[in-house]
Amino acid sequence: MPSASRAPVPGTAEGGPTAAAEAPKPVRRWLVLAVVCSGLLLVAMDATVLNVALPSIAHQLSPSAVQLLWIIDLYSLVVAGLLVFAGSLSDRFGRRRVFLIGLAVFGLASVVAAMADTTALLIASRALRGIGGALIMPATLSVIRNVFTDARERGMAIAIWASTASVGTAAGPILAGLLLESFWWGSVFLLTIPPVLLAAAGALAWVPESRDPNPGRIDGLSALLSIVGMVGIVYGIKEIAKHGFSDGISVAVGVLGVVALAVFVGRQRQLSYPMIDLELFRSRRFTTSALAVLLSFFGFFGLLFFITQYFQVVRNLSPLETGVRMLPLAIASLIAAPLTDVFVRKYGTRLTLTGGFTVIAASMALFTVLDGESSEVLSVFGLAGVGFGAAIAVTAGSQAIMVSAPMDRAGGAAAIQETSFELGAGLGVALLGSLMTALYGHYFDDVAGVSGAALENARESLPTAQEQAGRLGEAGQELFTAAQSAFLEALSITVMAGAVAMLIIAVLAYLFLPNRVKEQKELEESGGGGGW
User: Fold this and answer.
1) CA distances for 119 relative to 116, 122, 227, 480, angstroms
2) Segment (H or E) for 443
3) Are 39 and 64 in the same domain?
4) I need a labelling partner for 227 at 20 to 30 A (CA). Which of 26, 117, 274, 485 fits?
5) DSSP of 164-203
6) pLDDT at 342
7) Is 0.85 topped by the overall pTM?
8) What is the pLDDT of residues 37-69, one digit of tens each?
9) Which residues contact 448 (CB under 8 A, 6 or more apart)?
10) Are residues 198 and 237 in the same domain?
11) By the 8 A CB rule, do 176 and 319 touch?
12) 11: pLDDT confidence band, cut at 50, 70 and 90?
């Protein structure tokens, strides 16, 4: 059997020669870049645009605390599970074709989500949007690699592609806040319709069709195992956090998820053409860098889920005011990304990553002292610090992933890098959100004059408590005060847990990554890669 480490990875530059017409003229190349970046902007925005709308959704659809988590993180989990599989589809059937199909699926799901009148339909539409996002994302990078044949231009194009993801992620809450000032919560989904139409028109006009003449085998079973594994584990964690281990169904689904992922890993080791190149993880530099990227998004998206609820429900700010208060996060991210290369050149990847995660940890720790009257300065510095540190860590970690992999396996490294983005976002909301939910219920004290269903509903989530309080008169105010107190207690412990996770990866980066001099020497000698 051929070595798995030598197999080409679908959807990447190593998947074989590309069948396409000669490279487009310069102006058209940059038009193509604008088109594919429009598609990527959709995927990035959708990961964050919904956070500001959560309180409104809670009031209209009355989802449980666990359903709120699914509304946010199911999208990222589906994208993460299907990215590499979608890349293989684009290689076989054509990158432009798959890109257009992804846009169509994404647009349709956006309309369904905007019109959803039940929680179940909204969650289903988020999964459908995830399928669309997974079809869009790998096709964008493959098109760039096909169109930009000059190495320098390609590097610039990929840098713009990566910056587009940062801009979309940061802009999501702000644009959502603007819309929610005048429209219903479903309008945040329709925000993506104009870019979908523009990207589709541009793709038909300017993007050349291309495909791999020797595509790898389409491995639907591996894609299914990865989705079942991730969703099963996350489902188990969420439900066990709420109901405990006495809920046999939750435990069984969680175990099913673990088994599915174990089978997935075993299958990747046996296949000649694996979906994920596990051999790359033999390098501690690669493994640490991939973990750094994953945990950067873990902390970033986990905090975003809580802080928007804090601003709107505890501080009673409007969606627009909440979006404005997210500006420090966005601005700091945009400032930090181009500075990362300077830091890496001067201090090396080890110190840059260690510093970035230390900044995230310190900034998250600031949120442990939040209350209803906390100074605006506290949240400004906290959000700016998280945005700055996360951008540094993601950019440095992404660069380290690519340079630590041998050139003939660069495509496999890119696939793992992209998956780390989405998986980190999904797990951040799932794990930290589940911890938050459990702690919120634990710290929610009984309220005199409120009992039965009203009290249990209030213990579901803070937005639900706010809705219940509005129906109960004077007792409702006491109920809402108790809910706010429980939320702040839970928030303090949850963000501290997140800060500890950031410190742990900071230590791992310092221990397992080489110093600047050794890093440069090893890269010059080996051209990438490295053992444990």
Assistant:
1) 8, 5, 21, 23
2) helix 433-443
3) yes
4) 117
5) HHHHHHHHHHHHHHHHHTTS-TTHHHHTTHHHHHHHHHHH
6) 86
7) no
8) 888 787 778 777 888 888 888 888 888 878 888
9) 475, 478
10) no
11) yes
12) very low
CA pseudo-torsion sign 14, 18, 22, 24: negative
Residue in the structure block whose two tokens are 């802009």: 171
Evaluate whether residue 74 is within a structural domain.
yes
Buried/exposed 429-451: b ≥16 CB within 10 Å, e otherwise:
bbbbbbbbbbbbbebbeebeebe
Alpha-carbon distance of 171 to 311, in angstroms, equals 17
Q: The tokens of 207 are what?
A: 């993007």
Q: Which two tokens stand for residue 419?
A: 């998956």
Q: Taking a C-beta distance cutoff of 8 angstroms, is the pair 392, 352 a contact?
A: yes
The residue out of 215, 231, 261 marking a domain boundary is 215
Same-domain status, 101 and 236 = no
Paired tokens of 18: 């590309």
95 three-class SS: helix
Q: What is the CA radius of gyration of the chain?
A: 23
- For residue 169, the enclosing domain spans 1-215
What stretches of 22-150 show up as alpha helix (H) in DSSP? 26-46, 54-61, 65-93, 95-115, 119-147
- Length of the chain equals 532
Residues 42 and 142 in one domain: yes
The 3 state secondary structure assigned to 327-370 is: HHHHHHHHHHHHHHHHHHHHHHHHHHHHHHHHHHHHHHHHHHHC
Q: Count up the domains in the chain and report the number.
A: 2
157: domain CATH number is 1.20.1250.20
Distances, alpha carbon 110 to alpha carbons 57, 101, 115, 135, in Å: 15, 14, 9, 15
How much is the average pLDDT of 187-216? 83
Distance (Å) of CA 342 to CA 152, 159, 215, 338: 18, 15, 38, 8
Backbone angles phi, psi at 299, to 5 degrees: -70, -40
